[in-house]
Specification:
The protein has one domain (7-292). The two termini are 15 Å apart. The chain is mainly alpha-helical. The chain has helices at 7-30, 36-57, 70-90, 96-102, 105-117, 125-147, 152-180, 185-207, 217-245, 247-250, 253-267, 275-292.
Length: 297
């Protein structure tokens, strides 16, 4: 695979940075008056409707039901339903800025998974050093809370692990999408989100019927934004970038997304991450930079 990236690939990358970097702030707004599963169901359901409108409006059609839908089921679970819930649940406790920083684990995990599953994405000494540095950043982020023992901080540790679990799912999605998703990008994105909505929406309706909720308008607006922009539009751009540039390049989204999440958390949400959060962010970003640095020929 060529290491020279086109302008279009860089534009796709920065668009995803803006969309996904802001999603942590909107998640933080949504969880203020809505349960996590309801947020995930609304987000995925809205995104599926938007993409299906684009698919059929452009004259495309979804593939016929059959074994060819299994890749969509796998990616819907690993790339949408499970990580959306883990991250949203974690953000009931974890601030949006810290959640964005923790997502820096995603490109580090992608490097390891790609080594085993993607041709030409081998683990080198440089990548191993970068992974080790980034992992130290994660340990630094979680260390103070973990060492504090039981009590109120125990829930915070579990919440951070939940966000990290979402990051690991995204890393798996990056690799699996490259391996098993074929055909038209828009159709694949719509089919994946349709499957995810079929899985999540009935469970959310059963667990928390909408008429029992009293959400604030800010939360409802945040869910709508999450569905249309960071989910529907971003999923199409994501599939396109994965197919064009590969999972390791796409994972660089998380090189800048934590910074976007921190800035929005500071400026809009009024959050103030602890000093260890900034040190952890620095180690994570340095690790990603080292792991992805291209040697001169």
């Amino acid at each position: 695979m060529s290491t020279h990236r086109t302008l279009n690939e860089w534009l796709l990358l920065f668009a995803l940075v803006a969309m996904w970097g802001s999603s942590f702030m909107f998640n933080g707004i949504a969880v203020s008056s809505l349960p996590p599963l309801t947020i995930v169901a609304g987000r995925i359901g809205i995104a599926a409707i938007v993409l299906l409108m684009f698919v059929y409006g452009s004259g495309r059609r979804l593939p016929a039901l059959g074994s060819n839908w299994w890749p969509f089921v796998v990616v819907a679970l690993i790339g949408n339903a499970i990580p959306f819930y883990l991250i949203t649940w974690g953000q009931q406790v974890v601030e949006s800025a810290l959640a964005g920083i923790l997502m820096g684990f995603m490109p580090l995990a992608t490097i390891v998974l790609a080594h085993f599953l993607i041709a030409g994405e081998h683990m080198t000494r440089q990548r191993a050093i970068g992974f080790a540095g980034g992992f130290c950043g994660i340990v630094l982020l979680m260390g103070p809370a973990a060492l504090a023992g039981l009590g109120g901080d125990a829930l915070r540790v579990i919440a951070q692990l939940s966000v990290l679990g979402g990051a690991l799912c995204y890393a798996m999605q990056s690799v699996l999408t490259r391996l098993i998703i074929k055909g038209d990008v828009l159709v694949a994105a719509a089919a994946t989100l349709l499957v995810a909505s079929v899985i999540v929406v009935p469970v959310a309706l059963w667990q928390t019927p909408p008429w029992t909720l009293s959400p604030r308008w800010q939360s409802v607006t945040a869910v709508c934004w999450l569905g249309v922009v960071p989910t529907a539009i971003a999923t199409v751009l994501y599939f396109q970038l994965i197919r064009s540039a590969g999972p390791s390049f796409m994972s660089l989204v998380n090189y800048l997304s934590p910074g976007v999440a921190v800035l929005l958390g500071l400026w809009i949400m009024g959050e103030h991450p602890a000093p260890n959060a900034y040190l952890g962010l620095a180690l994570i970003l340095i690790g990603i930079a080292v792991a992805n640095r291209r040697r001169s020929p």
